[in-house]
């Protein structure tokens, strides 16, 4: 019984020990702003080259005055293990979240018949 308690104690100490020599990544710059009108912005950069920025504001997104939502835009970039810097720019608004970046896949072009159908629906006032 004592042996199993001692073994469990050693196991607990071993599991709680730091894994490797990873130290926390420092934030080298940071700023943020909150305004009375609901707009905001923030940005930070860490010592490993990661950068994040975001800004947003309140916008009426529906027909009623109380249909207010936050629209935001921002970007983030980081370095991959093989040294490539990847950047994502994004917008989040009444049309949803839209991200762009050179490394992100893009859909193939719409077939011509779909483009024509959408144009016809729009001309008929159905879209």
UniProtKB/TrEMBL annotation:
InterPro entries documented for this protein: Cuticle_Struct_Prot, Insect_cuticle
Top-rank taxon: Eukaryota
Segment forming the signal sequence: 1-16
UniProt keyword annotations, A-Z: Cuticle, Signal
Entry keyword annotation includes DNA damage: no
Region (Disordered): 46-74
Keyword Ribonucleoprotein: no
PANTHER family, sorted: CUTICLE PROTEIN, CUTICULAR PROTEIN 47EF, ISOFORM C-RELATED
Name of this protein: Endocuticle structural glycoprotein SgAbd-2
Species: Daphnia magna
